[in-house]
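Worked example

This section walks through a single chain of length 155. The input is the sequence exactly as stored; nothing has been trimmed or padded.
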Amino acid sequence: MTDRYTSIVDVLMLPYRDDGRMPLLRRAHDQYAPGQLTVVGGHLEDGESPLEGAIREAEEELGIWINPRDAEFCGLFQFVAADGARRLGAAWVTRAWEGTPTNNEPDKHSELLWAEPGDPPRDCHPYTQGVLRHFVEGTMYAVITAEPAATGGVA
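Given that input, the structure is written out below as tokens.
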């Protein structure tokens, strides 16, 4: 008998402004992926649905509230890190929210910037690069692989 697969589940929310830009957060230097840009998201917590988790992450990180009816599922991703570790991520996109997006967690993020998903900054984390690329392409499922010993590409 083989071991049952287990994975961290990432929940991602992609707020989308009328000008086509999405918020990216630069990780503080004492956080996971220090100095790199990431999409809004985090880990699914016990007892919540993936959509509830994505909405919670947007509230925690950006200080905005999203009505679940305004969130549209846009992808399921498996990220394979350079060391072979794997994680699953579920993503939603929204064009509607309450509040003004700000860097609501300055202890975790040093910067909030708005970027064009089809032309993201080069210093995005490989997972973020892949999520944005597949969002633009309309891909609903993808495996995103970080290149060994790389700080940035995806396969």
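What to look for: Confidence is low (pLDDT under 50) at residues 149-155.
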